[in-house]
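Hi C.,

You asked whether I'd gotten around to modeling the 199-residue construct. I have! Everything is below, sequence then structure, no commentary in between.
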Amino acid sequence: MPSSVGHALAGVAAAWTADLVPGNRAWRTAAQDASWYRRAGGGLTLACLILPTLPDADLLFHTHRTYTHSVGAVAVVGLAAAAVAAAFRRQGVLRVALTCAAAYSTHLALDWLSVDTLPPYGLQAWWPFSNAWVISGWDVFAQTERRHFLSAATIWINAQAVVWEIAILAPLVLAVWLVRVKALARFAAQVSGRHHPAE
């Protein structure tokens, strides 16, 4: 299964892709002279970087790739994000919920597209509707090693997996960033034009 690096990159790509969906995005735009953090989407993008790394916390409970790797968990994340967004803002609640759920679901997608040599193979993606284990068999991402975590062999295996993940996902993240910057700049100009009509 992929590393936290790959999962984090996919989550950021999901957050920035969500900014391309039409709708109320005024709160996601930032002036050109704003900080990089603000232009990158601030707290929501940061949340979307962290969320896809959380499912692997189930390793601590020996339930890896079960409940936390499912559509049920995606729904819980979406509902929790909606509650947090409602508590802190009056607009964009649905967009925040869907963005966070999409970022979390990238974990499932990457694991589904990964090598898995430890049975049962795959993940219980359809829980609570089904306990079946699913995997694509396409082996796009390498399996990381979690046993003997600090051994030289494990470090080498995981370093190779991270480099491969970056090679696949970084160009995607960069492309989405470039499209997002142009789209939000165009959106900001449209909003500004509406507020300040030409004489």
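If it helps when you're writing up: Residues 152-195 form the longest helix (44 residues).

Thanks,
B.
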